[in-house]
Amino acid sequence: MYSMSMWNVGRGRKKKGRGMTGKGELLHPGKDLSVLLTSLFLCSPVDCAIKAMVKHEQEEFPNRPDNTAFTQQRLPAWQPILSAGIVIPGFVLIGLAFIGVGVGLFITSRDVQVLELDYTGAVATDPCYKCSDPSIKNCECTMEFHLDTLFKGPVFIYYGLTNYFQNQRKYGISKDDNQLYGDLDTFKSPASECFPYGYDSKSKPIVPCGALANSMFNDTFRLYRMVNGSKKEVPLNGKGIAWWTDQNVKYRNPNETPLINAFNGTVKPINWPKAAYELDTTDVYNNGFINQDFLVWMRRAALPNFRKLYRRITKDEYQAGLPAGNYSLEISYNYHVLSFKGKKKLVLSNISWMGGKNDFLGIAYLVVGSLCVIMSIVMLIVYAKFKFPEED
Amino acid sequence: MISPVHAWVLTRFRGNINIYMGNEPVSRSLASQNLLLRGATLKNTEYIYGVAIYTGMETKMALNYQSKSQKRSAVEKSMNAYLVVYLCILISKAVINTALKYVWQSDPNKDEPWYNEKTETERQRHILIRAFTDFLAFMVLFNYIIPVSMYVTVEMQKFLGSYFMMWDDEMFDEELGERAVVNTSDLNEELGQVEYVFTDKTGTLTENNMEFIECCVDGNVYVPHVICNGQVMPGAAGIDMIDTSPGPDAREHEELFFRALCLCHTVQVKEEETVDGIKHGIHQGKSSSFYISSSPDEVALVEGMKRLGFTYLRLRDGQMEILNREDEIERFELLEVLTFDSVRRRMSVIVRSSTGELYLFCKGADSSIFPRVISGKVEQVKARVEHNAVEGLRTLCVAYRPLSAEQYGQVCHLLTRAKLEFQDQDKLVAEAYDLIERDLILLGATAVEDRLQDKAADTIESLHKAGMKVWVLTGDKMETAAATCYASKLFRRSTQILELTTKRTEEQSLHDVLFELSRTVLRHYGGMPRDTSSGLSSEYTDYGLIIDGATLSAVMRPSQEESNSGNYKEIFLEICRNCSAVLCCRMAPLQKAQIVKMIKASKEHPITLAIGDGANDVSMILEAHVGIGIMGKEGRQAVRNSDYAIPKFKHLKKMLLVHGHYYYIRISELVQYFFYKNVCFIFPQFLYQFFCGFSQQPLYDTAYLTLYNISFTSLPILLYSLMEQHINIDILKKEPSLYRDITKNSLLTWPIFTYWTVLGIYDAIVMFFGAYFLFDNTTFTSNGQ
Questions:
Q1: B750-774 and B74-104 helices cross at what angle (nearest 10)?
Q2: Chain A residue with minimal CA distance to B167?
Q3: Which end of chain B lies in a sparser environment, N or C, as judged by fewer CB atoms within 10 Å?
Q4: What family does this belong to (chain B) (predicted)?
Q5: Is A304 in contact with B691 (Cβ distance < 8 A)?
């Protein structure tokens, strides 16, 4: 036991520094001592010799600059020499590669199915024309469409708006982030950015305040498949359509149960048909400020023509997609866009490995690739014309 | 107590001192010989009593201090011009967007759609106030187009880049153990823009390492040792007589000549090893004592005498001791020293030999000695002096005058009267000297060589090839300087020399000479197009101009009565512009600066570089755009006042052709890139305003806006601007003409700047619309978002 404790002392001291030769360390035999000896008899003389050499050199020319590749600017470098022999084949190769990628992207993009249904009702023949008058409330209209082939799943449903400036700066900042984070103090006094959507005409605070929340898209859709003359509803999945960070980090409901208590003394936004705590009464995690539709709307679009994810079709027999046949879309039309010459549409789309339908990338690749090939041909002609006579 | 003589007049001082012994004050007058200026060394005495009279900012040094003006490089100037352009772009962008905003908002449905109504106060605000706030908001939005961080990066690049110059092993001199010193990092790129090089001769082009070559007594030439195939034969340290053996008369002159050189100097013998100034061992084996003097010529002369058998031992108790050829010590009593000054260009001593005879020995420039000579073999000596001057040797003439006791009495009288005079003392002393130093008998002449620096010719040739005009400014006489210029290839054999000297202006009027020269130069240039067919024409166009200080001051003199005095300057500049090399001899230090100033102010505003080693070059170094100091023998003043200091003249080649070239390329790319990247960054923001209703919506996140300049984009370009070598170092050194590609700030001209800006805008458009079409209503994630 005694020797054991001494050993411990030695270890403890050794950790503090090798130079310390405490009693404990001396008592501990073997490895440590040999290390100590090595450091004394092997390392030090070499160190001394190096130091002496350096010192000697310095004494000769104390001012002499270091002769290293860095200080003498001799670092290795590589500089391509662009001769015709390299550039022309290079251009051809790059061009062919780009064309290859472009063709691939273009075909992929072409295979993506997109169905756009404009239901604005701007023209009298449209089924929703009757609803386009802002004075009509709770208007319902139905659009029918036909699918010739299977619409491969997973199918996504988007609503699209045009000429709608969600990216207006004043509009975009017209919200109270603290309020949307569940800070009850701001329920009573919304931030000044929200004005004129901060208080209603009776000076009651609006929650959620601001133009952005107030203008939330509130059309709803139901999709029916016509099977043997009868309507069969296609189940729409509204989960996971918002950004994860929005749902879990940026937005939070006030810490009150039931949620309605938090909204005492406040009013709902002027344009909303129901209050925030009534957005989805069936699911606590989809209600209030973390309602998926609300979150999708609050995530602003960058451009004036945009579409936002509404639902996904992932359930039941529709996992593989929407089978060919007739469909009926029932719209409850609440959102008016004609005043600012906007349009509304419903978009059905699926995706490929490269995302949604976008011909641009494929076309861009094809154009650049063909330009490279054309340039290489031009260079070859120039090269042939001016190079070869010289050799004769 | 001190009379207020203007403090900046260094050469004059007057005052009284009252010494209280008991109660009676004893008044003594003080003159400049009682004044010790800063840097004076104590000689021949252990201590002195002194009173500090000027301190701090009142010292003559502080009063004479020419405040170093901030030197700005051409790159910085163009940077500022670009900034103004970008400011205009910024303002115009903001104005365009503000205007478009109100055009766009004229439709009320766009201005105030139902989903985004304004508050009452906003509606009631006056349209001008709204427009102004919008304008300011756009300014804030687009302000990142001004590359503020460029200054930080540029400074860092310059600072770090200057280390590469200090680190350059090729600019390290083993002899001195010194490397290049960078005193300012602001001018790295200016080294790549130099058009005029003004160089000092002594110590810069030459080594300032004087060596006694020969002396000539009455036309008989003496060489201290035989030189065989460039090797010194130590055994033959006797006198070699090249000419005929001298007669008895000549023999007497010879003895006098050697004694004169041994006596007529201000050389001190220093016994210790550590001394300031010039060191030379008296004895080969013992290095315990040295000759020191303010002038290296004198040391060379005294050493040369030692090799010829007459060794100056020391000055003891007013007795100068000489060890003559027979190893006997001869003693001469030193009676008077008529010190050297640059006006007289000579000095004299009056000594009494041990036999009681009185002599005045005088030594000085040939031009100041010959007019005062009454006898002696003037013709032979003159011929030899001219011969030596053409060889590039520094020549001095020696003469003497035997004085009778009576004459000496007069001399003493003259001198004491002059020195006691309180007013106009200097003038009287000069007059007295003038009276004393006359009726001289010419003894002979000496020749001292100042060897060219290593690779000086190569460097000058490279500078010429690089398109720089090299001017040599020297205080030496014309022939000596011209010989050096030929040796250093400043003038080639094919160079046509134009002379603008006092000799010529004495014959014709300055006016005529100037016009004639300009006609010569211009006629030739007018005829150039026809001559270009012949291959030699380019060689033939080489003109070299030689001008001396007196003529130069006549050219530059601003005379009111003559309306065409400005013309002189113009014509002179015109001539200079067409000369590849100019030699200015007999220059005063201030004139050197004047020349630099004149060229700087000429209408092309060329970039000038001045290089020198001595205190007399400081004014020129301070005046030029780039001042380079050589770590020479004449102290460190030039180095301290310079922007860059190099150990030897040859290092100038690498400094300009390699470092200057690189840093110019690097910094110009750096500057252009900075403007480019900011356009690239901010222009999409401008484009975005068209898609967000001109509502000042920023396209980027704030963090991104802040960090873009500071961290995302500054480091790569900084590294590039430190490391870039578009051409190999060796090629740059081998082909000096590559330097011509970058002259006149050629990489920062408006077309290139426009190119970069347009490139930036193009890239911005590609990026913006690329992203616009790529992200246009499509899905990115597998869950449909």
A1: 40
A2: A65
A3: N
A4: Belongs to the cation transport ATPase (P-type) (TC 3.A.3) family. Type IV subfamily.
A5: yes
Q: B779–A156: do the CB atoms touch at under 8 Å?
A: yes
Which residues in chain B land under pLDDT 70? 1-12, 32, 37-41, 43-44, 57-70, 224-250, 271-289, 294, 342-343, 421-423, 425, 523-541, 558-566, 633-635, 777, 781-785
CB contact under 8 A, A171 and B770: no
> In the β-sheet with A230-233, what is the strand arrangement from edge to edge?
A139-147, A325-333, A220-227, A230-233
pTM of the predicted structure, to 2 decimals: 0.75
Q: Is A340 on the interface with B (CB under 8 A)?
A: yes
Nearest to B174 among A61, A72, A349 (CB): A61
* Residue A339 contacts B where some CB pair is shorter than 8 Å: yes
- Flag whether residue A66 sits within 8 Å of chain B, measured between CB atoms: yes
Task: Tell how strand B358-364 and strand B373-375 pair up.
Answer: unpaired
Q: What is the per-residue pLDDT across A329-354, written as a single tens digit (0 to 9) for each?
A: 999 988 888 888 889 999 998 888 88
Of A65, A73, A309, the CB nearest to B784: A309
In sequence order, the 6+-apart residues with CB closer than 8 A to the CB of B514 are B500, B555, B568, B571, B572, B575
Instruction: Tell me the percentage of chain A whose pLDDT exceeds 70.
Output: 83
Residue B200 falls in the annotated catalytic set: yes
Residues B740, B728: Cα–Cα separation, whole Å: 16
Judge residue A62's burial from the number of C-beta atoms within 10 Å of its C-beta, 0-12 exposed, 13-18 middle, 19 or more buried. Answer: exposed
Structure tokens at B551: 């003529």
Residues ≥6 apart with Cβ < 8 Å to B129: none
For residue A267, give the DSSP letter: B
Q: How far is A327 from chain B (nearest CA, A)?
A: 22
User: What span, in angstroms and rounded, lies between the C-alpha atoms of B82 and B672?
Assistant: 9
Residue B427: count of CB within 10 angstroms of its CB: 11
List, as ranges, residues 578-617 from B with C-beta within 8 Å of A: none
Widest distance between CA atoms in chain B = 126
**Chain A residues within 8 A of B167 when measuring between CB atoms:** 65-66, 71-72
| Residues of chain B by 3-state class (helix, strand, coil), percent to 5 | 50, 20, 30
What residue type is assigned to position B252 of the chain?
Answer: E
